[in-house]
Amino acid sequence: MNNEAALPLECPIPISEYPRVTMAHGGGGRLMNDLVEGMMKKAFSNPALLAGHDGAVLDVPDGRQAFTTDSHVVTPIFFPGGDIGTLSVYGTVNDLAMCGARALWLSAGFIIEEGFPMEDLWKVVSSMAKAARKTGVEIVTGDTKVVDRGKGDGIYVNTAGIGVIREGVFVAPSMVRSGDAVVLSGDLGRHGVAIMAEREGIRFGTPVVSDLAPLGDVVLDLMNAGLEIHCMRDLTRGGLAGALNEIAGTADVTFSIEEELVKVTDAVAAACELLGFDPLYMPNEGRFVLVLPADEARKAVEVMRKHETCVYAGIIGRVSPREHVGVVMKSRIGSWRVVDMLSGEQLPRIC
Amino acid sequence: MNNEAALPLECPIPISEYPRVTMAHGGGGRLMNDLVEGMMKKAFSNPALLAGHDGAVLDVPDGRQAFTTDSHVVTPIFFPGGDIGTLSVYGTVNDLAMCGARALWLSAGFIIEEGFPMEDLWKVVSSMAKAARKTGVEIVTGDTKVVDRGKGDGIYVNTAGIGVIREGVFVAPSMVRSGDAVVLSGDLGRHGVAIMAEREGIRFGTPVVSDLAPLGDVVLDLMNAGLEIHCMRDLTRGGLAGALNEIAGTADVTFSIEEELVKVTDAVAAACELLGFDPLYMPNEGRFVLVLPADEARKAVEVMRKHETCVYAGIIGRVSPREHVGVVMKSRIGSWRVVDMLSGEQLPRIC
Predict the structure, then answer these.
(1) For residue A227, what are the contacts with CB-CB under 8 A and spacing of at least 6?
(2) Per-residue pLDDT reduced to its tens digit, A250-260
(3) Any idea what DSSP says for residue A341?
(4) ipTM for the complex?
(5) What would the mean pLDDT of B53-62 be, rounded to a whole number?
(6) What are the chain B neighbours of A168 within 8 Å (beta carbons)?
(7) Distance CA A57, CA B65 (A)
(8) Which helix or strand (DSSP H or E) is residue A42 part of?
(9) Of all residues in chain B, what percent carry a pLDDT higher than 90?
(10) Distance from CA of A153 to the nearest CA of B (A)
(11) Torsion angle, alpha carbons of B90, B96, B100, B104, to 10
(12) What whole-number distance in Å separates Cα of residue B25 and Cα of residue B161?
């Protein structure tokens, strides 16, 4: 299936006529119709979308499916290593992958601020189209709203996604068992640092690029390797610390990890020190933890390292029965500390 | 299934401690966790949601399904006859019904402006929970983002929905045939007038209340009656004129309707005249058109009128081969006029 050529190179809406999105582009009239037919349908072209219905009609394979949603409010919308469009597709594809599901279909809901440059809208939409093709999903239904100037921030993008789960796969926080190993898929903190640097206009000697990446393929390989995956979780808002604490809460276990085994690049470590952030809490957009029986962990790492996004994959700790707190970490000097969930947040609007 | 009692009557987040939503409520830390666990999961309680996964895992019946999404940006968020919460559930349930699907599962994506009153968030969330129970859907997955003050407008709610389509049902604009009849489910314009009146502080002698209503039950009855439904479309943004023009474009036909047969209440007619609006373009949230073979139209009207939201259901016109334009209307004095799609919009942020 190669319909890459079908994606127009330039904005298909005449920029000279409509350089900026107007309230009428969301009003249900001809301008909205032009935007949907002329831009969205050209970019996301597929039979379900082109049917022009109130929703997409889909032929569903037998079995179980996963369903998820995320609204994306990242600022700035263009950042080193990606943009809000790519993020909105990979983010939802990754959430489905974390459920052990292969993503098939996405919805796209746009909330656009009046005055948003049409050219930027096209960039976002074509990023979404490219990301969808790369991950093998179709954007089959959508919605566009325009809000008055000052009532938004350029563009917000919601995606919801449906994926299929193959027979025999039961991946969930509740499957986590004492004695399991914890595998981390790569180095931490690049997405958060890339966004903060861009937002604050900070330049580093080595530029930090977001780790934004799709995780469907590596998860598929893990499942194909016949591994008994208990739980996976991508490390977005709240970072590694947030993800492990959430799983620990649901599974009623304690995670013990070792700082020495958690990979952070020198550039990210330096930036975090400068900005006063802890990499454990930094959001990522292409990293995940995998929890599985300890005797399968080495094999999992081997499978993961074959993927470019997982070259730093490694075992970082293990699961034990619940002991008061969710996550503890052995520092480089050998002392143990509690890794709590943050009360508030380190970084607003990171995804 | 009666778990109505499980919905807390009062806001389960301590208002005295957090009277307003803070950036940290969207930050991936403990406060967000408190909001999700303490409010969302209590309101929407169901096994898929409570599993605490990155997405909901669902057992899907065999066959085809419909998938749709809508972002809701209505202002004001509380209006006569409903609020943004009820609207966001019924709107998506109705879009699924229009595909001939029975809605089963919804996602909910919140974009909340920093400073939004916690009490109002609870009102919106509990409206969603009630609307979900009333329509038999479960809100199985969700996402909460908080944006800085001045970058939103209180609250925006995206819902995406999945519904199942029974064997043998093929409802789509492309099924519309010349000779078909057009049935309108009720009087036009109440939602638009109710919102505008509230927004502009206009008081009418007879208060106009939104027609907001779920359409799943009446559609189910239509299908159970064995009618050969060709197409259905709810009359939201763009109103009756927008919906018919869209279907006409996809099906390559012309609709001829009669003004005399299109029901508009006196209160709405008066308000539209005062405000300079045309009821044909006014948005509705509980009205739809049904296109089906002419000899089945009477039976359809009979079935529809048994439902409170469809007491004014009636045949308003017919379908003929395409003749230059999408929709023509015979006026009360017998002359014909073209009913075009509006270029822009009558009413911004109506849904």
Answers:
(1) A292, A296, A299, A300, A303
(2) 999 999 999 99
(3) P
(4) 0.95
(5) 87
(6) none
(7) 6
(8) helix A41-44
(9) 85
(10) 5
(11) -90
(12) 25
Scan residues 225-254 of B and list those with Cβ closer than 8 Å to A. 233-234, 236-239, 242, 246, 249-250
> Which residues on chain A are in Cβ contact (under 8 Å) with B101?
55, 57
**A204 vs B82 pLDDT, higher one:** B82
Distance CA B126, CA B8 (A): 8
As a whole number of angstroms, the distance between CA A216 and CA A46 comes to 21
Task: Count chain A–chain B contacts defined by CB atoms under 8 A.
Answer: 289
Closest CA to A32 of B319, B233, B161, B346: B346
pLDDT band at B343 (very low <50, low <70, confident <90, very high): confident
H or E segment and range at residue B70: strand B63-72
> Which CATH number is correct for A4-165, 3.30.450.20, 1.10.357.10, 3.30.990.10, 3.30.1330.10?
3.30.1330.10
Q: Please tell me the predicted confidence (pLDDT) of residue B345.
A: 65
Which among B173, B177, B70, B243 has a CA at the least distance from the CA of A111?
B70
Q: At what angle do helices B190-200 and B266-275 cross, to 10 degrees?
A: 50
All CATH 3.90.650.10 domain ranges of chain B, comma separated, are 173-338
A239 contacts B27? CB cut-off 8 A: no
CA distance A298 to A295: 7
Strand residue runs (E) in B137-223: 138-147, 155-165, 180-184
State mean pLDDT over A18-34. Answer: 91
All residues at 6 or more sequence positions from A234 whose CB lies less than 8 Å from its CB, including other chains? A94, A95, A97, A98, A215, A243, A284, A285, A287, A288, B54
Work out the burial of residue B50: count CB atoms within 10 Å of its CB; fewer than 13 is exposed, 13-18 middle, 19 or more buried: middle
A48-106 pLDDT, tens digit per residue, is 998 888 899 998 888 899 999 999 999 999 999 999 999 999 999 999 999 999 999 99
**Burial of A4 (C-beta count, 10 Å sphere; 0-12/13-18/19+):** exposed
The pLDDT assigned to A3 comes to 47
Q: Is the pLDDT of residue A108 over 80?
A: yes
- Note whether B349 contacts A: Cβ–Cβ < 8 A: yes
As a whole number, the mean pLDDT across chain B is 94
CA dist., res. B209 & res. B127, Å (int): 17
CA angle (B34, B35, B36) in 5-degree steps: 95
Residues of chain B with CATH 3.30.1330.10: 4-165
CA pair distance B245, A293, nearest whole angstrom:
59
Euclidean distance between CA atoms A240 and A259, whole angstroms: 12
Identify residue B12 by its one-letter amino acid code.
P
How far, CA to CA in Å, does B77 sit from each of B90, B113, B153, B154, B193?
Answer: 15, 13, 10, 8, 15
The minimal CB distance from A242 to the residues B29, B63, B147 is found for: B29
Class of domain B173-338: alpha beta
Burial class (CB in 10 A: 0-12, 13-18, 19+), A215: buried
Q: Is the separation of the CB atoms in A98 and B54 below 8 Å?
A: yes
Residues 163 through 192 of chain A touching chain B, CB cutoff 8 Å: 163, 165, 172-174
Alpha helices in chain B (DSSP H): 30-35, 41-44, 47-50, 84-98, 118-135, 190-200, 216-224, 239-251, 266-275, 297-305
